[in-house]
Design goal:
Elements (H helix, E strand, L loop, with lengths): L1 H20 L2 E3 L13 E4 L8 E11 L2 E10 L7
Parallel strand pairs: 1-2
Antiparallel strand pairs: 2-3, 3-4
Amino acid sequence: MRLRRAARLSLLISIALTTTAHAVTIGREQDIVDLKLGQRVQVDDGTCPAGQVKEVRGAKMTEKGVARTSACVPRYGPKSK
């Protein structure tokens, strides 16, 4: 019984990590139309130093919708257009 529960738990954790590991990369921040709370979108607009990409996050809820924050983060994998 414990082995089955542990297997289910590890499956759920691996699914959660797999879905969060794939970030969407776009070319302009203006192209982000519906950012959800907690969502992360990588923007490759050339504003960050070499080897980094801008990451825009849905930070918190406001009266006008989701407030955004952005920061330069390390780029992983090949550069995409």
